[in-house]
Design goal:
The protein is α/β, with parallel strands linked by helices. It is about 40% helix and about 15% strand. An eight-stranded parallel β-barrel has the order 1-2-3-4-5-6-7-8, surrounded by six helices. Strand 1, helix 1 and strand 2 form a beta-alpha-beta unit.
Length: about 210
C-alpha cells in the first residue's frame, strides 16, 4: 500500500477566476492540505489539461499528490499522481490497468459491498459520502455515520469522508476511524483558505 497522507483532502470546484483558484489551492496547502483533487465536470479536455498543468506546478512544489477526478486521459497526459473514479465512471480494475501500479487510485463508495469491490479491484483508498448534506454534488448518495464506520471496518485500505464537511461539523466524525476529511466549499469558498485548512486539520487531529 502506498504511503498516503489523506488527513486533509481538498477537492476543487469549478473556477471562473483561475488566478484566485490557484492561489486558494496554494494557500490551502500551506495550511496543511495533504492531497489535491481537481474535479472539473464541465470543462473541455484542453481547458482541463491546461488547468491541471498549472495546479501540478503548485502541488509538485510542495510535494503534495495531485489526483484527477474521472479523467484518466487528463491524469496520464499531465502525469498526475493519481485518479479518482466514481461508481458510474471507468471501472476501478480497468482504471488500474490503464494507470499502472505506481499511480494512486481512489474510488467513491457508499456501501460496504462497493468498498470491498474497489479494494479487490486495486483501489488505494475510498472516498465515502455524502456524510452531510452538500451543495457541490447534488447526486451524491448519503451515508450515515454508522454506515461510514462499517465501511471503514470492512476494508484494509484507508477511507476518507466527503460531503458537506465544514468547521462546524467535522468533529462529529472523530470516532469513525476515517483516514481523513475531504472538503470542497469549506476551503474553496473560504476567505482565508490557509486558516480554514489549519482549523480543519486541527479538528481532525484532535
Amino acid at each position: 500500500m502506498k504511503n498516503l497522507d489523506l488527513s486533509l483532502y481538498l477537492v476543487t470546484d469549478k473556477s471562473d477566476d483561475v488566478e484566485k483558484f490557484l492561489k486558494t489551492i496554494e494557500e490551502s496547502i500551506k495550511g496543511g492540505v495533504s492531497v489535491v483533487q481537481i474535479r472539473e465536470k464541465t470543462a473541455d479536455t484542453l481547458d482541463f489539461y491546461n488547468l491541471a498543468l498549472k495546479v501540478k506546478k503548485i502541488t509538485a512544489k510542495y510535494n503534495v499528490p495531485l489526483i484527477i477526478n474521472d479523467r484518466v486521459d487528463v491524469a496520464l497526459a499531465v502525469d498526475a499522481d493519481g485518479v479518482h473514479v466514481g461508481q458510474s465512471d471507468m471501472p476501478c480494475d480497468v482504471t488500474r490497468r490503464l494507470i499502472g501500479e505506481d499511480k494512486i487510485l481512489g474510488v467513491s463508495a457508499a456501501t460496504v459491498s462497493e468498498a470491498k469491490k474497489a479494494q479487490n479491484d486495486g483501489a488505494d483508498y475510498i472516498g465515502c459520502g455524502a456524510v452531510f448534506p452538500t451543495q457541490t454534488k447534488d447526486d451524491a448518495d448519503s451515508v450515515t455515520k454508522e454506515e461510514l464506520k462499517k465501511i471503514v471496518e470492512s476494508i484494509d485500505i484507508p477511507v476518507v469522508a466527503i460531503g458537506g464537511i465544514n468547521l462546524d461539523n467535522a468533529s462529529e466524525l472523530s470516532d469513525t476511524g476515517i483516514a481523513g476529511l475531504s472538503v470542497v466549499s469549506a476551503i474553496m469558498s473560504s476567505d482565508n483558505p490557509k486558516k480554514s485548512s489549519e482549523e480543519l486539520l486541527k479538528i481532525f487531529n484532535s
